[in-house]
From TrEMBL, chains A, B:
Cellular component, GO, one term: nucleus
PROSITE patterns reported for this sequence: SAM_MT_PRMT (PS51678)
Pfam families according to UniProt: PRMT5 (PF05185), PRMT5_C (PF17286), PRMT5_TIM (PF17285)
Record's protein name: Protein arginine N-methyltransferase
């Protein structure tokens, strides 16, 4: 089930320049690391900026005029050197002194700075220059500009990687991010042309551009995108990795916040002709542009002043491209497909990339609102009704109208499936006029949540003509009552006890508890389910899991943990979970609407369960699954899915390749590893996972092995040992 | 200075029933423990509810009709038994079985439940009843109702204290609050009539009603108001403590969320005459109603059905009272007084009771936005200009037009005081037509924040005709330059370096650093300042300080701390503050717009500083200050204030009793104790505080002694030893 505890922040204020979606609001969004734009707010026309250069011929105290000139050309913001243009265009010389920072704050209102301007490090600054005097000078001067950014009310600072390795720059940024309450994000640009990051004389470097960025952010300790994000500079030449979707989709797993489009890419048929992008660039941009929070910037790298008419054409072309992507997304969303769709068109945008704790409906009672949300998934219930129809057909043949058919709904909740059972009966009766009597099922509804039983009773009286016998209690105590003759043996058992990873809400344990009271002909809906996993790359989800740590507030110390331990009362009368050094937030399973993710191989099956389990097979499991990874990449963990066969060919699936259209009840599960693992092309990844059971509950333990092409094997630590971090209570 | 780092949540959605301010929004507000209503949102017409009883003659499945009937009578919500009226009105009997919970959720939309209904524990439930069978039964049945609340989408549950001591109830609630992710608040009602909480046979109990509540919430570990709040039931009889403002103002320091007004209080002249409250009740309600988040409830405790016309009269009377309070508040706010004003009329509502970290302008550089906010305080700058005018008059006499007068602005920021100096000069020239020449001051502006210097230069060029010599650097290095003859000795030194507790932004250290370059006639503005403290009661602020602990997130481990230690780099390249077990969030000074506070004695002076400090007195200090507390109360810590004499009779004060009208730059300081201390009437409280200095910074250390009337002395632990928790860097 998808629902977790999540507070939504809403209500970012809107400010207007040329278009309706506020730039300041979306920058803020990206900084707060939350997707919060409301459906009604989304008007897909992304904000496009201009990268100001010296050739624009402006002065550092004329920002107001410059902004309005760009605004008249349909631009929404500009990228401007934070130290001023004079300083930025300085030609560095040994023993020379760069012009001082001079971009006075008073010329623009505090709010307008943040709305219309994003900063840039002076173009000449190069902390990792080969000339040590330039490197040293740059390290001093970049600090001043980082500092001036904290003074100014700007929210973004851009800079470019000038080398394949930039350790000094990384060191400076890392210290800033960790030890300063930075109020802005740094966007680091990399070119799409590998020739612009030449290999130094000393030798070979087989790393691609993605890998160069990944190494840089690793040096920066993978600090989250509130402070560190990446931009791609689209150059005329595209390296191979930007031509193959399989490879460039790795950027979906990165905090890709911006595109800097060089004007030399545009082809134009005469001065007043229409401006276009070459097909490869067009496709790349269409595929990597996944949200309006990504900011395209247009950059003229010639030294001549750009023609005003062309400037307008460039921005219009990019806005048109985004419009096309929006139209495609809208169509795809309506068609129920959500592949390569703008985030803004996803059904549950506020959940995108948000970690949720899996529900434990067995141990906890769900609340009324949660039931109400799940009941809205008509696709799921339509499938159930269809499956029940088939089962009724078969059961009528089996029982031969000799006796009533006893139908048990196990874990009835507020009764949505009971409604389906009754509708299936009506459908059967409507088409079976040749029967002697109308079919009348005997209906039993078992629910252990006493609160939901209040609702069931209300529905029974008002909707179901008191036909249903409601049994308040745990289904694991049902067999006693049947054996005592108080209740008949079931012919049909219907349940919906599946989690995102199939069995993780303990459906096997619940359903097995009634095996001894079943007839040999009893049908279970679902009949069978299988969990799946696929290896994934995602620095973003790794950061999110990291962020789950260390944040226990004083008054929340006693809240239920997800591990095996339970809170205890302390001497001062307060409660707290016992300290548990083995527990780690990386050893838990999460539920996530995954977007900033790249699947590194196709999903494979993990655990399979069948019902009724007449053979009384154990529900403990142990498997290992092998994947071959066919590119330079970074393993974060595994996405978990499931498929379920309800009855005959009625199938539910949340495996991406076979996803049931329109099914919204389940987001994928996330099974993290404790660290990010850089993989070479061709690495074999072997995932070991066990499903373990004791008297108190069920848990998974897992670890990985990597076999590189050179045959070396690396093993990761065993995670969630003894269920200390993630424990599904029985 | 007032500004701290604070993120504001905004944009609570509005839902409407009868009036414009949404009930659901404000309950949410109270639960989130944040004051977030925007100025434009505030329409002062509080929401008034009806407490449903059996005599209303309704059924548990007619909630919709009942709601609309009450809505037509101008009520905004109702208080209804969460288990249903049938269950609530059960007469408990030994071995009897109470009716089951039966208040079906489906009859009202999820959102409407939360908007129109607050829950109530069944009236007969009494966990601390003398009859053990009733107590035992109550303990079982209250759990069911607390559980059903988590199922239902309600946000508040009310119950009444029925005894002077309720340990079993406290134990149950405490366990719930600590170990369950409770989605609602519990409002505990106490009567204003002490006879309704009779002393049990075994003896004396001198505790008043406030103390009974305080004992109860202590038993509940003082859990914050998101989950535990208090309501007062206004009975016909008022205990003495509700007649004397000095005593009932202690309730301002409690999470007082509601008033339950008994209909028997109202006096009415005939059925169609106007309904009124007795004067004492009226005054009590007017004084204790401080925010529209407090919810009045009207309760008819007779067994007869209430007349519909009277029901309307009651609610209108209460709404009128609130309207009157709003009008008074508006007038008071316009007149610049904020005593006993509705929170909604305070200038900075989002700051109310919010802990902020004091700025350290000496160690840190302020940003442009912070300067902009401080520059808006015209009251402060008008006073400075006046003081500068007086100083110029005196200096003209001293220098006798023989030489120019050298004016130094120390810590110029973006130059607001330079503007005042220039205006003072203009004023002087305007009224001194008899002088030979116009006065022309020599102006020097010293500022260590390089970023603010960019602004100063801009203003110097555009506003000040390049008259001002701008010196970028620390004022503590100024004397070198003067001694080297590069700059003249100052005749007038102007600065604004004061914090909420006077010297806590290190004004003494900064100003003393230039003593050796002063003339004997040099004037300092300010000339003198004194810090003040007053003992305060406030469980709310104690909870807020508690909440500051234990919440360090992974990616914020390296953020600057407030104590002496600085972040260090770890092996993995990340940064973190070193572990420091001695450090405590209770040993820090905060800045707070204090509202949920009761001053227990008048403020007294603490430290005094004079400038110029020609005698070179040390700025280390050690004092002890004695207060007598004249009521049963609970000491939380001390409020800190200051007064400053700028020059002659130009005085700034944030001491409440002498507060400069309209001055908004400083909220009070908060100096917490580590625990809440219950005081008997007549206790002597002695506050010991030292101001300590070493080469790296300045810090306060403090502790308290209490001498009870019986002569016993209790000493609290020394706080902030060696500045490990709060350290002002030099």
């Amino acid at each position: 089930m998808i629902l977790g505890k999540k507070t939504r922040k809403a209500g970012l204020c809107n400010r207007h320049w040329n278009i309706n979606l506020s730039w300041s609001a979306v920058v803020q969004m990206c900084q707060e690391d939350e997707q919060v734009v409301q459906a009604s707010d989304v008007e897909i026309s992304a904000l496009v900026g201009w990268m100001a250069t010296n050739s624009d011929g402006i002065h550092d105290t004329d920002i107001v005029e410059y902004c309005s000139r760009l605004g008249a050309r349909n631009y929404n913001f500009m990228n401007y050197p934070i130290g001023g243009m004079k300083r930025s265009s300085w030609c560095p010389e040994k023993n020379g002194i760069p012009p001082p920072i001079d971009l006075p704050d008073l010329q623009l209102d505090v709010k307008l700075w943040g709305t219309y301007v994003i900063g840039r490090i002076s173009d000449w600054i190069d902390c990792d220059a080969n000339e040590s005097w330039l490197a040293d000078l740059s390290c001093i001067e970049i600090e001043k500009e980082l500092n001036y950014m904290t003074y100014m009310p700007l929210r973004v600072l851009t800079l470019e990687l000038k080398h394949r390795d930039s350790p000094k720059l990384a060191e400076i940024l890392t210290k800033w991010m960790w030890t300063r309450n930075m109020t802005y994000s740094v966007w680091v640009f990399l070119p799409t042309d590998e020739n612009l990051l030449p290999v130094t004389d000393c030798g070979q470097d087989i790393r691609d551009i993605w890998r160069i960025w990944a190494d840089f952010r690793s040096l920066c300790t993978n600090y989250p995108m509130q402070k560190l994000a990446v931009g791609l500079r689209l150059c005329p030449n595209l390296a191979d990795e930007f031509l193959e979707p399989r490879l460039y989709k790795r950027w979906h797993a990165e905090p890709l916040c911006s595109f800097c489009i060089e004007t030399s890419i545009f082809t134009s048929s005469g001065q007043y002709g229409k401006c276009t992008l070459p097909p490869a660039h067009y496709r790349l941009l269409m595929d990597l542009f996944v949200s309006v929070v990504q900011r395209p910037l247009i950059h003229c790298n010639s030294s001549e002043q750009v023609d005003e008419h062309l400037r307008l054409q460039y921005v219009n072309m990019i806005k048109q491209l985004i419009q096309e992507k929006a139209i495609q997304s809208k169509e795809a969303a309506l068609a129920g497909s959500d592949d390569n769709v703008l985030f803004e068109y996803l059904g549950h945008r506020e959940y995108v990339d948000t970690l949720q704790m899996p529900l434990q409906p067995l141990a906890d009672n769900l609340d009324s609102g949660t039931y109400a949300i799940f009941e809205e998934d008509s696709v799921k219930y339509d499938l159930y009704r269809e499956a029940i129809c088939y089962a009724i057909e078969d059961l009528v043949k089996i029982t031969g109208e000799e006796r009533n058919i006893a139908v048990y709904l196990l874990g009835a909740g507020r009764g949505p499936l009971m409604q389906m059972i009754i509708e299936a009966e009506e459908l059967f009766n409507a088409k079976s006029c040749n029967r002697r009597d109308l079919l009348k099922l005997e209906l039993y509804s078992v629910e252990k949540n006493a609160h939901a039983v209040v609702t069931l009773q209300f529905r029974n009286k008002h909707h179901w003509k008191d036909r249903v016998q409601i049994i308040e209690g745990d289904m694991r105590e049902l067999s006693e009552k049947v054996r005592a003759g108080q209740l008949p043996s079931p012919d049909l058992v219907v349940s919906e006890l599946l989690g995102s990873f199939g069995d993780n809400e303990l459906s096997p344990e619940c359903l097995d508890s009634i095996t001894d009271i079943l007839r040999s002909t009893t049908i279970s809906i679902p009949q069978q389910y299988t969990s799946y996993i696929a290896p994934i790359q995602s620095v973003r989800l790794h950061q999110k899991v990291l962020c789950c740590s260390g944040g226990t507030k004083y008054f929340e110390r006693g809240f239920p943990g997800r591990g095996r331990l339970e809170p205890v009362k302390l001497q001062d009368g307060t409660y707290a979970l016992p300290e548990c050094p083995e527990a780690s937030q990386f050893d838990e399973i999460y539920v996530v609407c995954m977007r900033s993710v790249c699947e590194l191989a196709k999903p494979k099956a993990v655990f399979n369960f069948e019902h009724p389990n007449f053979e009384r097979k154990s529900n403990a499991r142990s498997v290992c699954i092998q994947f071959t990874i066919d590119m330079q990449s970074e393993l974060m963990g595994f996405a978990g899915y499931f498929t379920a066969r309800l009855y005959r060919n009625c199938q539910l699936s949340i495996v991406p390749q076979t996803h049931t259209k329109g099914l919204v009840s389940w987001f994928p599960a996330l099974i993290p590893l404790r660290h990010l693992y850089r993989l070479q092309k061709g690495t074999e990844v072997i995932f070991h996972v066990e499903r373990k059971i004791d008297t108190r509950g069920v848990w998974y333990e897992w670890f990985c092995e990597f076999q590189n092409v050179d045959g070396k094997i690396k093993t990761t630590p065993l995670q969630n040992k003894d269920g200390m971090s993630y424990f599904m209570r029985l």
